[in-house]
Description:
126 residues; 13% strand; two-stranded antiparallel sheet
Amino acid sequence: MSTPHSAEVLAALRDFVARLDGLDPAAPLVGELVVGLGDETERLTLRLPVARALTEALRGYHDPRDRGSCAHCATGRLDDDFVCRDCGIVNGLFGQTIAAFVASAPQDPEPRGIGPAGRPDGTLGD
Length: 126
């Protein structure tokens, strides 16, 4: 069964090929592209400029939801806050800044509770 999206995708491919073929109709043929979506099939002749443009477009596309892979575990994907979904490490400049801050903070061998004003004795330190 064909869907509105199928028709859109096929029309976009057809228009793309026609637009580029119009620029160089004598370019060498490199093959055919057959795309089937739903119950529709589109058979497109691929000339060299179209094949190159499709390859470049597909390889160059970056999904805005893709934040990259984790620099720590190298297998996890980052969420919108650049936190690895696998290991939980914060990545990027923000993550490096937090890690450096934590690493440079003096370590108290016996942690104490923090008072309401931010210091153990409840004052602001003034």
